[in-house]
Hints:
By secondary structure, this protein is α/β, with parallel strands linked by helices. The protein has helices spanning 15-24, 32-39, 45-54, 67-76, 78-101, 134-145, 149-157, 162-168, 180-198, and strands at 3-8, 28-31, 107-111, 126-131, 171-174. The chain folds into two domains: 1-27 and 107-199, Rossmann fold (3-Layer(aba) Sandwich); 40-104.
Amino acid sequence: MTYTVGVTGGIGSGKSTVADLFAELGIVVVDADVIAREVVAPGEPVLDAIGAYFGPEVIAADGSLNRALMRERIFENAAYRHWLEALLHPLIRERMITECQNARSAYCLLVVPLLVENKLTDLCQRVLVVDVAESTQIARTTQRDNIAAAQVEAMMATQASREQRLHAADDVLDNNDRELTQIKAAVLQLHQQYLALSGA
């Protein structure tokens, strides 16, 4: 299997920005969020199961999943969240493994917001945490997703704490109030390190 670097961080930490910078360097990025959207795309059998369990209102008129409504449901009710995770996580894990195995770069990034929570560090040879202060997470996410701070805090409460993520990290990229040029420089340094570790 391709040498795999797991990338994680709390909501609003800047994981996608960091992953995009690695992609610009020619590194294959396997993104759990992208895969999670693919497995519930219109026509996928999983979507029918979700509609049957949660009710037809969670399926939009165009046949896609009503993500805003689902987000509300699963963060209001832990049993709903557990049911959905039990359905989706094995499918997502299987697809992540396949995509990492098929990666055609010196190493690949596996971007998983819940890498620590879902005990997926076994899929990686190294873990990179994109780290920001919790206040920054709230500010960025409320602005990006146009949702209330209380909803962001509820999401954060279901995730590993900042301390838990940092404890799992082999490498930490500090993304607190840094310019893009600084982040690029940090990514380039990590890239050289990962090339060496992968034996490229």
